[in-house]
Amino acid sequence: MHELSIISSVVESVVETLAAYPGATVKEVRLRVGALSAVIEDSLQFCFGIATEGTPLAGAKLVVLILPVVAHCPACSQDVELESLQSFRCPRCGNPVDDLKQGRELEIDSIEIDEVEDREPETSKVEGTI
Amino acid sequence: MTTRIVELRRGILKKNDELAAGLRARYAAAGCLVLNLVSSPGTGKTAFLERTLRELRARGCRVAALVGDLETDNDAKRLAASGAPVRQINTHGICHLEAEMVSKHLEGWELADLDILFIENVGNLVCPSSYDLGERVRVALLSVTEGEDKPLKYPTLFNSADAAVITKIDLAEPCDFNRELAVKNIREIRPGIRIFETSSKTGVGMADWLDYLVAQQGGVPPNSSGQPTGVVEIQASSQAVLSPEEESGDAIAPASNEFSVATPARSFASPREAKEFLIEWIDAEARRVGTPLSEIERKMLYVSRKGWTLPEIGDVQEAFERYHDPAEYEEKIGKLIRGIRLGAHTAGNQSEFDSWTEAVRVLSKQDHYLLELIAASGGIRKSGGRISLWLTAAVVCGVLVAIALFMGH
Predict the structure, then answer these.
(1) Residues of B with CB below 8 A from A63's CB?
(2) What architecture does CATH give domain B14-247?
(3) pTM metric for this prediction
(4) Looking at this predicted complex, what is its ipTM?
């Protein structure tokens, strides 16, 4: 149940970002979550409803993109997608793989907002970097 | 109204990660090895850590621990009995530790004065895996009572671990625990991970674990000046012993503790297990009588020509040859072994000594220097004779290997 802590961090980050868009309302929050990130989407959704109450995010939709685990297989010299979390082996050659390229992400990808037209913010391009 | 997509591409736990990166840099600058111990509730993290702290202190290592729990300071009290500085972190409902909690509880501790800091996480196999605490080594623990498939059920944690420890290995048999399967499952999730099989009760496997810690820390800790403190404190009194940090009033006063290596008669699955048992006992006896073994002295007990030994035994022998007097060493070990025999007899605890006899019997299947020391302690012996033979043998082996390598080219 650390999903509430995670969602609270999400809300905090989004509220900070909104400072550049006065009056804007949030329609959607998109997360990128690796399959090995130890969070459950249902719990995220449940906590999102609670944590956004009384914030500018109230009523927004939470979209969670689950990313499969990708590891580099030295034997095949390429990145491969794991078929199961119960076996860290290359699905092509069966060799063990431990060099993960994807699967631990826990990121806010983007937010979709409705903003007031006559109040264009100074930074109108892409906000924030990783 | 216009709709706009604002890309953030920002780590959700960015604040924690940044704080953890800062901690990691602090630990590294101070030369302090930090470990994060994670397991389910009831795996035996605290018992394991109790023994680890005690034995590392006996080796002259400066250790400390932070221990996380939802409520109570019970674990901190237990751990503080080792004599090491210990602080409790109560999360009050939060299921994991975060970098900020660690940072806050480190205030007032001089990291440069510590060799190893242990962080015992809240008992939970899921949530702690998302939170970096700046540790260099994450240790996943699993007890034999939890079943061999635990790693498959919790891949997230086991995959993020740097080392795994199977605890309560003394209960493997009654629990029908399949060690090979457990090891296979752990490696299925985390290929190549270092795995230790330990018992906090009997001490089996602890020597390997402690050697690993010392190696990770980056060297052999000084063991001349600070060595006896931890154990002597425990021995000298069953009263609470305050380390300097605890005297400041911030930390928890340790509870009383009794040091004992008493074990029931037992069986040994391998010569290695028997050997570790015997060495652990000799090591404990050395501390009991106030002449603790140095790192080299202890490791010398592992010498073997063909049987199982430590990977770094060559270096150990070399250091021994340089700094130790073989006659003195054999005299010291012989005295300890005689002390163990005498202790078992006078206490009338034959079953306890039966374990010793059984271990010697199992070990006798291979050739070990330790066997010679044990045999010699019971009768007439020529001081210094034995180890010089072994050292000569080691040198001869080395030369032969060198010749073989040379011929190969």
Answers:
(1) none
(2) 3-Layer(aba) Sandwich (3.40)
(3) 0.63
(4) 0.83
